User: What shape does this take?
Amino acid sequence: MLINLTNHPSSRWSDKQKAAAEVYGEIVDMPFPVIDEAGDEKYIATLADEYLNKIVNLSDTQSVVVHLMGEQTFSYALIKRLRERGITCVASTTKRIVKEEVQGKKSEVIFQFERFRAYE
Assistant: This one.
């Protein structure tokens, strides 16, 4: 199973990304939490523990890989906890394509999925 813990539901992924994810099995979307910008380290640790428990409960019956992209301090805290339990975490890598209308002003940015890469 691939748990998609991001702000990007798998229903909106490209065919290439869906095919890459299917290697891990069923794709399960878990919305990324809204992180309070005023929260301190204890707040992040508590939230990471909460999400760790959600993921562990889902992984009781099958192996799981977590696709985790989002706010850095929360992501780091959760990745650390998941890896301590032997749960693989991956990031999606993308090619950034920028189209400019006027020199120096971005008019459109496209992120083209390339592959999943394990956090090591």
